[in-house]
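Q: Structure for this?
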Amino acid sequence: MSQNTNTAAPKHMPKDMKEIVALCKRRGFIFPASDIYGGINGFWDFGPLGTELKNNIRDLWWKAMVKCPPIGPDGNPVRIVGLDSAIIQNPKVWVASGHVGGFSDPMRKCPGCGKFTRADHLWDTLLNDSEWGTSLLQEIQEQGKINTDIILKWAKSKGKKLAPNLAVVKNPEVTLSWLATRINGQPESPPSMIEILQHLATAQLNSTGLQDPCPRCGAPLEGESTFNLLMKTYLGVSASEDDKAYLRGETAQGIFVNYKNIVDSSRVRVPFGIAQVGKAFRNEVNPRNFIFRSREFEQMEMEWFCHPDEADMWFDFWMEERRKWWLSIGVGSDDIIFRKHEADELVFYSKKTFDVEYRFPFTAPGFGELEGIAYRTDYDLTQHQTHSGTKLEYMDPMDNTKRYLPHVIEPAAGLTRGVLAVLCEAFTVDPNRPSGMYMNFHPNVAPIKAAILPLTEKDGQPEIAQKLYMDLRQDYMVDLDIKQNIGKRYARQDEIGTPFCFTIDTETSSDNSVTVRHRNTMKQERIALDKVKSYLQENLSKFD
Ligand code: GAP
């Protein structure tokens, strides 16, 4: 069995995000946080299978980075040590890192509903996520051309409910006659969809020109301002401004502030890395796309400290390692790209950055960021050295007259986004099976590795199944499922992406054999009962 083979669905058959989100809830991968209270925007809870999936991805990252890192381009084994720093650090850390001054997103306030929108995501939100935007565009697109009668009908019906503050809803005839003039006046360069939405938001021709509408209620948005993403909290009883602290906005700063402790205590020598996995918090203006952009999420970050002259070599090395790693967990080569940041996108302290991007269903045919690989120079160590007054220079062990601040290459991956990419990649439509789909998880991330299913509750089958289960559970995450008809049980295992099902039937007690059902092909074969464990070991480890 290999990844992404024998799938009934063509590789690029569009995947429906709504179906993926529904499956995640139905099968216990991911739930809205505080679900019974109506949820809370930007927060998600991982259910039993989601936790298992996330932990598997995390452990494979940790293995590739800390427990079993590769051989470096210099022929020496790479050395990376782990860290688990506090989520709350001295607030001066975030001043030094630049987060207090500059970790912000551009946003625009709506005077109509009082909500904020990310200025740089406005059109994407309006065209893809906004309830009224998508409803109106659907009407326009079904017509194939701008038909003011259709818009008028929409404005007087659905528009009233969805976008009460949109100019065309408040004042349909005037707004539409102006739109008609604009369209008729420019037969050779008809306005784009974005311009049309701007026209529909603009009450009348005025000195301010076209207006940008709020994705929620349609009112013209106010101008752009910035919004700091760090989440604040207050420590201690008095909770005054002096007690203000920040939940970490990235795991990386915990690494930089412990750099000296680790060099002094761990006998590491440059080049070496420090890795950390953990929660990060950002007060995102518009959390969206399921767990893609949330306010609480997990990162897997590694800071690689090296001599400045070797930074380019290490950058190329880590790019290749990261490509291999994503592939090793089943995030396919076709759906992943490495995109170089252009000069105008590059943060001022980075000499070079590439984003690892995945073609999510909601970004397709485009891509969304999974990981950033940045050459951060000595920016962070310089900042912390200056702000803390503690010397952070590295002394060359061969020549103690040579001191320098190491340069840093940072592969910074999103664990939460990694889970989403794995879920999206695995979701495979297959009309030929009762579940209509299956999760084509790579076996090394699959939450459940095998299911043990007695065909009936007679003939001692449950007892044989129980014995097999007790044996396998010592080494693997396995599921024993006894009730319901076998078709339904296979369907459930397909939905949760279990690679193998072992079925105990009437023949088992006479010839000591079981049926193995392969998830992707649904093919079945017969193997000896006492070979099940070695079979599983062999077939799972092939993919390590
Ligand atoms: N230390 C560098 C750093 O934090 P970043 O690009 O801001 O870089 C790294 O974040 C990764 O963290 C991203 O590539 C993404 O996978 C993940 N990430 C960032 N913001 C996120 C959010 N609001 N929700 C989920 N994941 C997020």
